[in-house]
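ok new one. same drill as before - structure tokens go in, u give me an amino acid for every spot. 296 of them this time. try not to just spam alanines like last time pls lmao
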């Protein structure tokens, strides 16, 4: 049976980003770990073009144990990623060059894919001028998949909320106030839900503050000399780290590249454990909400 989860980090005032919708890491290491586990659970990750343009996130699983477990279970090593867009304005994005499968879900009217979307990316046309999210779910099911993780942003999550397709919301409550009318929220539909979809609290967990990431950085991935990196985010195999991209301890980097949290990757030397006190100190609360009223 199809199970759809939404996973997002929110500020204390329910925002998922600042008003300029630029890349912003709200959660810390524990949130990244939870994201990795949810991705490992998923057959398919659904994400909006807005998030791809803002963050250009890599989606490949970095945890080799989780990848091996998927293969042992007869699943693909990495979840497939489906990017929603009507305009097709997508530059070369990491999602399309990762080791997992990817698709673009778009409209009948959308232009043909530009150079930013490689030929190996499957194009699904699922509605005249907007992607019909019910058709998208049907299309995903027709691939034999039944675990969907919606990673946002608020615009795409809203499509699923509006049609009452979301079974579970995984929220990471982070200790920031973002403020501002224009900063996007979890369900950024621009219109009210009527009736409002209802969820009940299934789990609450206060995340212990971790002072340093669990593992040291491994050899494997190319890192561009001089690129500043910070502890925090996964990089995908074969993907050069971009300037400003955070790196999580345990993520592979090329042998000999020392990684200093908050510092620079320099040629020569040995990979060291990354630590980033500012990020690691984040006090977070993990919440899981399930669809419907408790007991019904
Ligand atoms: N805190 C978190 O956990 C979290 C998670 C994810 C994202 N974010 C943040 O959220 C912000 C992005 O959110 P967002 O709401 O602006 O963007 P989004 O939801 O990621 O993407 C919106 C885009 O998706 C496409 N789209 C949406 N509905 C569609 C439909 N029915 N048919 C066809 N295409 C459709 C459109 O792309 P086109 O414009 O290409 O047509 C639309 O502009 C960024 O700041 C990002 O960093 C935060």
């Amino acid at each position: 049976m199809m199970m759809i989860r939404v996973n997002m980090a929110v500020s204390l005032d329910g925002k998922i980003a600042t008003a300029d919708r630029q890349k912003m890491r709200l959660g810390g290491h524990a949130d990244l770990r939870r994201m990795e586990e949810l991705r490992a659970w998923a057959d398919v990750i659904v994400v909006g073009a807005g998030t791809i343009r803002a963050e250009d996130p890599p989606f490949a699983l970095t945890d080799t144990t989780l990848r091996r477990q998927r293969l042992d279970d007869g699943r693909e090593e990495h979840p497939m990623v489906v990017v929603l867009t009507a305009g097709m304005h997508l530059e070369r994005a990491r999602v399309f060059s990762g080791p997992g499968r990817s698709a673009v879900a778009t409209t009948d009217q959308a232009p043909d894919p530009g150079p930013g979307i490689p030929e190996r990316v499957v194009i699904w046309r699922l509605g005249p001028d907007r992607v019909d999210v019910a058709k998208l779910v049907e299309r995903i099911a027709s691939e034999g998949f039944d675990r969907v993780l919606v990673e946002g942003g608020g615009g795409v999550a809203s499509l699923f909320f509006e049609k009452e397709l979301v079974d579970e919301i995984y929220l990471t409550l982070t200790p920031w106030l973002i403020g501002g009318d224009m900063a996007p929220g979890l369900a950024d539909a621009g219109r009210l839900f009527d009736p409002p979809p209802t969820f009940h609290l299934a789990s609450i967990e206060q995340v212990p503050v971790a002072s340093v990431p669990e593992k040291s950085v491994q050899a494997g991935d190319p890192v561009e000399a001089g690129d500043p990196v910070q502890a925090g985010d996964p990089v995908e195999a074969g993907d050069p780290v971009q300037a400003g991209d955070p790196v999580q301890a345990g993520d592979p980097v090329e042998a000999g590249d020392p990684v200093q949290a908050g510092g620079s990757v320099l040629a020569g030397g040995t990979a060291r454990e990354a630590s980033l006190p500012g990020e690691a100190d984040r006090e977070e609360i993990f919440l899981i909400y399930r669809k419907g009223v408790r007991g019904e």
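The chain has six helices and 13 strands. and btw The domain at 3-207 is CATH 3.40.430.10 (Dihydrofolate Reductase, subunit A).
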